[in-house]
Specification:
The complex is a heterotrimer of chains A (about 210), B (about 325) and C (about 550). Chain A has about 210 residues and is mainly α. Chain A has 8 helices and no strands.
C-alpha cells in the first residue's frame, strides 16, 4: 500500500467495490422513486378532486397503443436481464446483442410515444393551448399531468438508452467484464426502474375510465 | 390625530413616489425574456371568469394586484340607511376597503372581527377621523338592513367603536360591484351547490385620489402593517411588500379543507411507513449482523484494544 | 504496509502532490474537493453577509433611504437564498465532511470520487446561476418560491429556480456518496459504535438529504414548467391548487432545517471532548439522537402552515411533534454539558466559538418552542420575532459551527497556524455583534413589528437602530475572522504537528497536512475516537 502514497491519484488506487456501487445505485433509485412519488401524490390529489373529468380525459387516450407500449417496455426489461446474464457468463458478444435489442425496444417505445403526443398536438391539446383551456379544469390538469409525467418518463428512457450504449461500448472495450459487472448491472437496475414507473403510469393514465 | 400622519409624511417627503407596477429599467431584461417566451409559446390567452362555477371545479380566485391604478369613483352604491351614495364621495380620506358578503358563513366574519380588533389597537389613528373603512358586499341580494345588522354586530365587538361614518357597510348592484372588484383585481365566484360565494380575503388600501396603494392578504394582521399601509395611502404612494403575497389565502372552500386533510393523512401515513420501514430494516440488519458477523470491514471488536473504552458500550459492531 | 514508509514519512501531501489550477479543478481527491468547497462557500457567505448588512442599513431608520421596496425585496430574497442554499446547507458537509469524513473512518477517499467532483460542479453551476439572477433583476418571490406568485411575477425567477434545482442534485449526490462511503469504506476497527460523532451526524444528514431533496427538486421543476410552458398544476385558473405546493414544499424545507443543524451538532461533538479532555458523555445517545432528529424532523413540516387552513387535529399532531423534536436536541445539549463538567477545559478559539454556540443555540431552541406552541404562534407568526428566531437557530448553529470547525481543523488542513489573539478578538466582536443584531428583532416582533417589510413605523426605530449597529459589529467580526484565516493560509506560522489540540479521532493520527491517500500505511484504529485518559476526571 505504502508505495502508492507518494504518487498517483487516490482514484487510481481505489479498489473496485461492486457492493458499494450497488448501494450507491439503490440510493439513487430511491431518490428517483421519491421524485416520481411526489408526482404520483399530486396526481392522486387531483384525481380525488376531479374524478369525472379525469375519466373523461382518460377516455381519449388509446389503450391499445398504451398497452402495446407497455408490452414493448416489459420485453425490453427481459432482454436487459438477458444481456446481464450473458456477460456474467463471459459471453460479451451475446451481451452486446441483447443490449442492442433492448435499445431497439426503447426506440420503438419512444417513437410510439412521439406519435401519441403528435396526435394530441394535432388536436390542439398541449400546454396552455386554447383548445385545452376551453375544457373543464380537471381535464386541463389531467393533460398537464399526462404530458409532464410521460415526458419525464421519456426523458428517463432516453437517459437509460444512453447508459445502455455506454455499457455496450464498455463491453466492447473490455472494461465491463464478468469481473467488473457493476456498470452493466446498474444500467440494468436503472432500466428496470424506468420500466417499473411505466407500469404505474400506464394504468393511471390509460385504464382509469370504465 | 392627522398630526401623526403629517409628521410621518414630512419625514418621508423627500423620497420619490413609487411608480407602481410599471416595468422598471432593472427588470427590462427579465421582461424581455418573459415576453419572448410567451411569444414563443403563444401563451397569451386569458380566460374570462364565469360568474357562476360548475360543479367540481376550482375557480380562479384570489387577488391580482393592481397597484397604482385609480378605482372607478363614480360607482353608485347603497349605504346602511338605504340611501344611494357615490363611492368617490366616501373617498375623502385614506380608505381601507374590503369585499365580503354579510351572510357569509365562514371567513368574512372572522376577517371583519380581526380588522375590528386591529382597529382597536391602532394607537394614534382613528377610523372616521384619519381614514375611512368601507365594507362592500358582493352579494347583490343583500339589503341595507342586513348591512346595518352586520355593522351593529361588528362594531359591538370593539372596545372603541368608531363613529358610524368611520366604518361604512355598503351594498350594490351586481354590475357596480363587479366593476369595482375587477378594477381592484379581486376575484370571487358563486357556487350554486353550497349556495355560497368562493373568494379570497384582502384588505385594499386606497389614497384620497382613489389610487390603489397596498394589498394585505390573509386572515390575521398586525396593527403595525395596517398603520404603515395607511401612511402610504395618506402619501398616495403605492408599494409592494413581500408579506402581501405569501399569505395568499383561499378562505372558504369546503372541498379544499377536506382535501388538505386528505393530503395531510396521505403524506403523514407515507412518511410514517417510510420511517418505520427504515428502522425495521436497520433493526433486522443489526440482528443479522449480530448472528453472523460480516467479516469484511465492520468486524473490529476483536481487533485492537477497545477494552480500554469500557465507559462506552460498543454499537452495532459487536 | 512496509516499515520503510513508516520510517520516512512522506513529505509529499495532498496540497503539493500536484500543481496548477487545473490539477485542482480536475481533482478527485476528497481533500482537495473540500478545499474547493471552502473557497466557493466562503465567497458566497461573504456575499450574502454583505447583502444582509445592506438590508439592515436600509432599516436603520423608518422610510426608504437607500433603495426602493422592490430592490429591498430582491436583496432579501437573494440574501435568504444564498445563505440557505449556498452557505448553510453545503458548508459543513461540503467542506469538512468531504475533507474529514473519509479520514475519520480510515478510508482513502469517498466511494465515488468522480461523483464527488461532479457535486462541486453542480454546486458551482447552481451558485453562478443564483448570482446571474441578480444581474437580470433578481427574484422577488422570497426563497420559498410560493405559487401562484412565483409564476405570475414579472421578475425573473427562472434562473433562481433552475439554480435551486441544480443545487438540490448537488446535495443529493453528496449525500449518496457519504452514505455509501460510511457503509463500505470504514477501515478495519472503525465499527458503527466507534465511528466519530461527526460522521454519525453526517450519516443522518445524508439520509435526510437523499430522502427529502427529490421532493423539492420535482416541485421546483414543476414551477419551472408552470412558468415556461403554462402547465397549470398549481394555477387555480387552470384547476391547480397552490396550497398543495405549500405542503409539498414544507415536506422538504422543514427537514432542511435539520440538514442545516445536524452537521453543526456533529462538529460540536468533536470539539467539546477534544478541549475538555474528556470522553464524550453518552456517545450512543448522541449518535442515536442524530438519527432520531432526522426521522422526527421529517414529520413536522406542517407547523409552518398553522395559519393556512389546516384541520384542527392535524394542527395538534404537528404542534406535538414540534415539541417532540426538541427532546433529542435537548439530549444533545445536556450531553455536551455533562462532557464539559469536570473536564480540564482549554479555551482555545474553536472551543470559545463552540461555547458561544451552546448559548446562542439554546436561545434559538427556546424561542422555537414559543413559535411551535399553537396559541402564541398565531400572534408572532409574521413578525420580526421569527426573523430573530431563525437567525439564532440557523446562523447560530450552521454559521457559528462553520467558523468553529474552520478554527479547529485549520492547522490540519493547511499545515499552518492562525494568529490566536486576532482570533479571540474577532470571536468577541462576532458574539457581541450577533446578539446585538438579532435580540432586538425579537423584542420588535413581540411589539408587533411585521417581518419582510422595508419600511416601518417610527415606534420601532429604537429596535432597528440597535440591530443595525449590531450588524456592523457582527460584520466587522466576520471580516476580521475570515481575514485572519485567509491570511494564515499563505502566511501563517508553519506547523507539522500531527495533533495540535490533542484530539483522539483518526485525522489527528496522520501527518499534517495529510498525504494524498490520507494515511502513511494502515490507519491506527486501536484508540477509539473519544478515549481520553480517565484520570483527568477530578
Amino acid at each position: 500500500m505504502s508505495d502508492h502514497t507518494a504518487a498517483g491519484t487516490a482514484e487510481a488506487h481505489l479498489h473496485y467495490d461492486p457492493v458499494g456501487n450497488r448501494i450507491g445505485m439503490w440510493l439513487f433509485l430511491l431518490t428517483e422513486l421519491i421524485l416520481f412519488g411526489t408526482l404520483f401524490i399530486i396526481y392522486a390529489v387531483y384525481f380525488h378532486r376531479y374524478t369525472p373529468d379525469y375519466e373523461r380525459a382518460a377516455h381519449e387516450l388509446n389503450r391499445l397503443i398504451g398497452g402495446a407500449n407497455t408490452l414493448v417496455l416489459l420485453t425490453s426489461s427481459l432482454t436487459m436481464a438477458l444481456s446481464i446474464a450473458a456477460l456474467q457468463k463471459d459471453k460479451a458478444a451475446q451481451a452486446i446483442r441483447w443490449g442492442f435489442i433492448t435499445l431497439g425496444f426503447a426506440s420503438i417505445f419512444l417513437v410510439v410515444k412521439g406519435f401519441e403526443w403528435a396526435h394530441k398536438f394535432e388536436l390542439g391539446i398541449y400546454f396552455d393551448s386554447e383548445v385545452l383551456l376551453a375544457r373543464p379544469k380537471g381535464e386541463i390538469v389531467f393533460y398537464g399531468m399526462y404530458f409532464l409525467m410521460t415526458g419525464l418518463h421519456a426523458l428517463h428512457v432516453i437517459i437509460g438508452g444512453s447508459l445502455i450504449v455506454t455499457a455496450m461500448v464498455k463491453i466492447k472495450r473490455g472494461t465491463a467484464t464478468s469481473k467488473r459487472m457493476s456498470f452493466l448491472e446498474n444500467t440494468g437496475l436503472y432500466w428496470h426502474l424506468v420500466d417499473l414507473i411505466w407500469i404505474y403510469l400506464f394504468p393511471l393514465f390509460y385504464l382509469i375510465h370504465r | 390625530m392627522n398630526i401623526v400622519l403629517r409628521n410621518h409624511s414630512l419625514e418621508l417627503a423627500p423620497r420619490p413616489v413609487g411608480q407602481g407596477r410599471a416595468p422598471r429599467a432593472k427588470t427590462r431584461w427579465a421582461w424581455l425574456l418573459v415576453m419572448l417566451l410567451s411569444l414563443f409559446l403563444g401563451s397569451t390567452a386569458t380566460a374570462s371568469l364565469p360568474p357562476t362555477i360548475k360543479a367540481g371545479e376550482v375557480p380562479d380566485l384570489g387577488v391580482s394586484e393592481r397597484l397604482g391604478e385609480i378605482v372607478p369613483l363614480d360607482a353608485m352604491l347603497v349605504d346602511e340607511q338605504g340611501k344611494a351614495v357615490r363611492f368617490g364621495d366616501l373617498v375623502d380620506k385614506p380608505v381601507l376597503l374590503l369585499f365580503v358578503y354579510y351572510r357569509c358563513p365562514s371567513i368574512c366574519n372572522p376577517l371583519m372581527r380581526e380588522l375590528a380588533n386591529n382597529l382597536d389597537h391602532l394607537e394614534g389613528l382613528e377610523a372616521g377621523e384619519d381614514f375611512t373603512v368601507i365594507t362592500i358586499s358582493f352579494d347583490p341580494n343583500e339589503t341595507p338592513e342586513i348591512a346595518a345588522n352586520t355593522k351593529n354586530e361588528i362594531l359591538g365587538t370593539m372596545e372603541h367603536p368608531p363613529k358610524p361614518a368611520g366604518w361604512r357597510f355598503l351594498t350594490g348592484t351586481e354590475e357596480t360591484v363587479r366593476m369595482l372588484t375587477e378594477s381592484m383585481g379581486f376575484k370571487y365566484a358563486y357556487d350554486p351547490e353550497t349556495q355560497t360565494y368562493l373568494h379570497a380575503t384582502s384588505l385594499i388600501f386606497l389614497s384620497r385620489e382613489g389610487k390603489i396603494v397596498r394589498y394585505l392578504g390573509g386572515l390575521s394582521f398586525l396593527p403595525a402593517e395596517i398603520k404603515l399601509a395607511l401612511f402610504d395611502a395618506y402619501n398616495n404612494q403605492p408599494r409592494a411588500f413581500m408579506g402581501t403575497f405569501e399569505r395568499f389565502c383561499y378562505g372558504e372552500e369546503p372541498a379544499g379543507r377536506s382535501f388538505v386533510k386528505t393530503v395531510n393523512r396521505v403524506i403523514l401515513g407515507a412518511t410514517g411507513v417510510l420511517v418505520i420501514g427504515l428502522s425495521f430494516f436497520l433493526v433486522l440488519r443489526k440482528r443479522r449482523k449480530g448472528e453472523e458477523d460480516s467479516p469484511a470491514k465492520t468486524d473490529a471488536s476483536k481487533s485492537g484494544s477497545d477494552e480500554e473504552c469500557d465507559s462506552e458500550p460498543d454499537g452495532e459492531g459487536k | 504496509m512496509s516499515a520503510a514508509a513508516l520510517a520516512t514519512p512522506a513529505a509529499i501531501n495532498y496540497i503539493n502532490a500536484e500543481k496548477g489550477i487545473l490539477s485542482w479543478l480536475t481533482t478527485t481527491d476528497h481533500k482537495r474537493i473540500g478545499i474547493l468547497y471552502l473557497c466557493s462557500i466562503t465567497f458566497f457567505f461573504l456575499f450574502a453577509a454583505t447583502l444582509g448588512v445592506l438590508m439592515r442599513l436600509e432599516l436603520l431608520s423608518p422610510g426608504m433611504q437607500y433603495m426602493d421596496s422592490e430592490t429591498y425585496n430582491r436583496i432579501l430574497t437573494l440574501h435568504g437564498m444564498t445563505m440557505i442554499f449556498l452557505f448553510i446547507i453545503p458548508a459543513i458537509p461540503g467542506i469538512f465532511g468531504n475533507f474529514f469524513l473519509p479520514i475519520m473512518i480510515g478510508a482513502e477517499d469517498v466511494s465515488f470520487p468522480k461523483l464527488n467532483l461532479a457535486s462541486w460542479y453542480f454546486y458551482m453551476a447552481g451558485g453562478t446561476l443564483a448570482l446571474l439572477s441578480v444581474m437580470t433583476g433578481g427574484p422577488d418571490t422570497g426563497w420559498t418560491f410560493y405559487v401562484p406568485y412565483s409564476f405570475k411575477t414579472g421578475a425573473n425567477v427562472f434562473y433562481p429556480l433552475l439554480a435551486a434545482f441544480i443545487l438540490g442534485w448537488s446535495s443529493i449526490l453528496t449525500g449518496l456518496n457519504f452514505l455509501t462511503t460510511v457503509h463500505r469504506m470504514r477501515a478495519k476497527g472503525v465499527t458503527w459504535g466507534k465511528m466519530p460523532l461527526f460522521v454519525w451526524s453526517l450519516y443522518a444528514t445524508s439520509w435526510v438529504q437523499v430522502i427529502v431533496t427529490p421532493v423539492v427538486g420535482i416541485l421546483l421543476l414543476l414551477v419551472l414548467a408552470e412558468r415556461v410552458l403554462g402547465v397549470g398544476i398549481f394555477d387555480p385558473s387552470k384547476g391547480g391548487d397552490p396550497i398543495l405546493y405549500q405542503h409539498l414544499f414544507w415536506i422538504y424545507s422543514h427537514p432542511a432545517v435539520y440538514i442545516m443543524v445536524l452537521p453543526a451538532m456533529g462538529v460540536v461533538s468533536e470539539i467539546i471532548p477534544t478541549f475538555a479532555r474528556r470522553t464524550i458523555f453518552g456517545y450512543k445517545f448522541i449518535a442515536v439522537s442524530s438519527i432520531a432528529i432526522a426521522a422526527i424532523g421529517s414529520l413536522v413540516w406542517a407547523h409552518h402552515m398553522f395559519t393556512s387552513g389546516m384541520a384542527d387535529e392535524a394542527r395538534i399532531i404537528f404542534s406535538f411533534l414540534t415539541f417532540f423534536v426538541a427532546v433529542p436536541s435537548a439530549v444533545k445539549i445536556f450531553n455536551w454539558l455533562a462532557t464539559l463538567y469536570g473536564g480540564s477545559i482549554a479555551l482555545e478559539p474553536p472551543m470559545v466559538l463552540t461555547l458561544a454556540f451552546i448559548l446562542i443555540f439554546s436561545v434559538g431552541g427556546l424561542t422555537g418552542l414559543i413559535l411551535g406552541a399553537l396559541s402564541t404562534n398565531i400572534h408572532l407568526h409574521d413578525t420580526a420575532f421569527v426573523v430573530g428566531h431563525f437567525h439564532y437557530t440557523m446562523f447560530g448553529s450552521g454559521g457559528i459551527m462553520f467558523l468553529a470547525a474552520s478554527h479547529y481543523w485549520f492547522p490540519k488542513m493547511f499545515g499552518r497556524m492562525y494568529n490566536r489573539n486576532v482570533a479571540y478578538v474577532s470571536i468577541l466582536l462576532f458574539v457581541i455583534g450577533f446578539n446585538v443584531t438579532y435580540m432586538p428583532l425579537m423584542f420588535a416582533g413581540v411589539a408587533g413589528m411585521p417581518r419582510r417589510y422595508a419600511d416601518y413605523l417610527p415606534e420601532f426605530e429604537t429596535y432597528h437602530a440597535i440591530s443595525t449597529t449590531g450588524s456592523w459589529i457582527l460584520y466587522a467580526g466576520i471580516l476580521l475572522m475570515v481575514g485572519n484565516l485567509g491570511y494564515s493560509v499563505f502566511k501563517g506560522k508553519k506547523t507539522d504537528k500531527e495533533n495540535p489540540w490533542g484530539g483522539k479521532t483518526l485525522e489527528w493520527r496522520t501527518p499534517t497536512p495529510p498525504p494524498t491517500l490520507n494515511f502513511d500505511g494502515e490507519p491506527d484504529t486501536s484508540i477509539g475516537p473519544y478515549d481520553y485518559p480517565v484520570e483527568v476526571e477530578r
